[in-house]
Each structure stands twice: as structure tokens, then as C-alpha cells.
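thread: overnight batch results

M.L. [08:02]
morning all. the overnight job finished for the chain we discussed friday. pasting input first so we're all looking at the same thing
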Amino acid sequence: HRSFPYGVNAPWGHSWGAHILAELEQRSLFDTIPWSDEGNWYDSDPASLTLQGLSRAQLPSFRCPSEVAPKKVNWIIRDRYITSYLGNAGSDVMIDDFDHSFSMVDMSRSNGVMLVAKCWDSPPSIRIASVTDGTSTTFLLGEAKHLSTSTQGCGFCHRFYLYHPEFDT
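M.L. [08:03]
and the structure it wrote out:
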């Protein structure tokens, strides 16, 4: 402990929400999570079905009561529940993906707390002591405005939580 969970495991996997389930009185759901990289969003093996079930779990703690977005969407995973809250990957992020050319700051190398971990690497852990401007002035999570089209702004804010086939933080 004494550190923050990584923001999301990419390009697919678990997000920050999965790591805090036990603290939200969701221990039984937390205990079902296959933490390995087994399973995916389209197969029917037990690990895949568990991951798909995670994305359908309706947890009110992850949704603002005044959210205007639909509760469920059928994008990639049928009847997927969407969250209102996203993690802050940092103020210097230039691309919502991995930048393999290293010419831009991506979500795995930013100055934020909720970083992206590549599924083949060890997830980064940001220690509380590493937050140089203090935790009381650090923006960790925030409510994201629902945008129905990519022309309104964020075409990649798919709002996956717990499990995702494509990352957002």
C-alpha cells in the first residue's frame, strides 16, 4: 500500500476501478477478477466470460446520479455499463494511446498518478511520497462530460470501467 493503483492496464485489462472494489464493499466481485492476462472481450472461456461480466456489473458508486449518458451501451461488449468518472493521466499527455515513436508524451510516461501500464510490463506504482506537489492539490479522478460524437471532443472516452478491451483512464 502507500501507493496508488495504476490507471489502466493496456491495451486491454483492468482499470483503477477494479483495484478499489474491495474498499467499496465489493469484495465478492473483486475476488472473481482473473488478474492474469487470460481472457478477452470476445471469447467464451471462463476467464473471458468473467471479464465480460465485470464490464456489465452495475455499481452505482461509479456513476453520477445526474449522468445523462445511457447506463448501458452495446459498443464492443453488449450491455456494458459505463462510468461517469475517469482517472487523470497527467497534465502533459499529448496522445490517448501509446506513442511508439516516443515523440509525444503518452499515457504511460506522463506526469500524472493514473498511468497506463502495458500488459506485458510490470504495472507502475506511484507512491504517495512521489506526488511532489502534495496529495491535497493533486487531481486524481474526475467526472467526465458525456460526449456523444467524436466531433464534440473526446472520441476515445468510451468510459470502460473494471475491465476494458481498449483503454481510457
